[in-house]
Amino acid sequence: MESPMILNDTLNTTDTEMVGSNLSHAVLIVAYSSVIVVSVAGNGIVILSVITCRRMRTVTNYFLVSLAGSDLMMAVLCVPFTFIANWLVDRWPFGTTMCPIVPYLQTVSVFLSAFTLVGLVAKNDLNAS
User: For the chain, which domains are there?
Assistant: First the structure.
């Protein structure tokens, strides 16, 4: 004799699928939150160490501060907004004001990171020759 399946009327899924979905959402939330916390803490430490320690103020370290700042922007602006809008609620919940601002700041943080790396390579290449 087969065991009866309990269907959820609103989603037309079984209870076991709902539990699996909730568990995967919880795992994703914990993973993304961990990435954000570690990124903010690590990049903050890099920025503070270069700013507070006079001996660390070199051109290369300023490039690293710029890279840490762009990574900090990425962790604060890109990851949470994209995760919430695309994975959790599958729509834009932040209103019409934030709609053009967030993609602009995300683009700025990606380009800042890329151009900082280009500048760092160019500086190192110029020093080598």
Answer: 15-124 (1.20.1070.10)
